[in-house]
Amino acid sequence: MTKPPKSKPLLQDADKPARSRPRKPRDPAQPNLPLDPMPDRIDPCLALLKPNPPKGPQWAFEVKWDGYRLAVHIEPAGVRILTRGDHDWTERFPAIAAEARRLPVATAVLDGEAVVFDTHGRSDFGRLQQSLGGRGGNRMSREAVLMVFDLLYFDGRDLTGTELTARRHLLEGLVPAGGEEAIRLSEEIEADGDVLLRIACEHGLEGIIAKDRNSTYRSGRGGEWLKIKCIQSDGFAIVGYEKSTASFGGIGRLLLAARKGDELVYVGGVGTGFNERSAGELREQMDKLIIGRPAVNTGRKRNAVFVRPKLVAEIEYRAWTHDGKLRHPSYKGLRDAADNAGVYEVG
């Protein structure tokens, strides 16, 4: 039996050593594949208010947190914590900044909400403000926790054009669920939206957030994220107050306005929700803004003091009356300019 002929390496002479071709020199006109530049700022995706949770498998649900929206930028040079209004508050959240430095990543941008929890584990906006020294204060908050719900930039890559499901997958690898650190994952909750909203309301939470799993990250209120509240809560401009000798800070009722186009319109008053401290701080702020005539038509008011509409109050309310006034309102606190406080727009 004859032996098969000795095979040759493909396309080569068997007697010559195998050798790869020398590389051509790189064309300097052809750049290397670059990393995405680290953004200085990303305008946040905002949730659109809806009366009921959406239906369908593409919607993911989370708890709605009540705090300050923050973006945490992690770079080799350090950590920056920016508010929604583009203020650098790195020094005011030292625990969050320190935890961000410990995360196993070289570059990242985290999107989340700084909160302070009450004794029942609910986010409490009033406690957060107090921990920061009140509205306009400059204290550091060591109690604040960042509930992080999105990852916008990761290890040199811009993720804003990537669908939510992929962003969440990367985020969950970076910030695991169930931690007790200053940066914690805002977990997705597998439940029917109506059931989850009912449970959230029963536990005294503000509401829930619904997010389209297939959506990219788009700044503004495009409808990819929705918020459904147990109790309505929005920002209203303070246009004055009615004096009272029997109330905290001498404030009987705050006079409130909403935005309608380029103008403000009166939407009623609020006389509950104050304590001695919050009313005192509020009165001090309002007394710096007193004007002789009201900025909006409030109707006839006794013992009223009118102020320039520079302060935005967060007001909880149940509904609207037929004549466009707030029903069962309650004062929650002053929104800070650093949180890009907006005034509610009536239709």
UniProtKB/TrEMBL annotation:
One Gene Ontology biological process: DNA recombination
Catalytic reactions on record: ATP + (deoxyribonucleotide)n-3'-hydroxyl + 5'-phospho-(deoxyribonucleotide)m = (deoxyribonucleotide)n+m + AMP + diphosphate
Domain ATP-dependent DNA ligase family profile intervals: 137-229
UniProt KW keywords: Ligase
InterPro entries, A to Z: ATP-dep_DNA_ligase, DNA_ligase_ATP-dep_C, DNA_ligase_ATP-dep_cent, LigD_ligase_dom, NA-bd_OB-fold
GO molecular function (one): DNA ligase (ATP) activity
Region called Disordered, residue ranges: 1-41
Enzyme nomenclature, EC number: 6.5.1.1
Enzyme type, top EC level: ligase
Family: Belongs to the ATP-dependent DNA ligase family.
The name this protein goes by in its record: DNA ligase (ATP)
Organism: Rhizobium ruizarguesonis
Source lineage: Bacteria, Pseudomonadati, Pseudomonadota, Alphaproteobacteria, Hyphomicrobiales
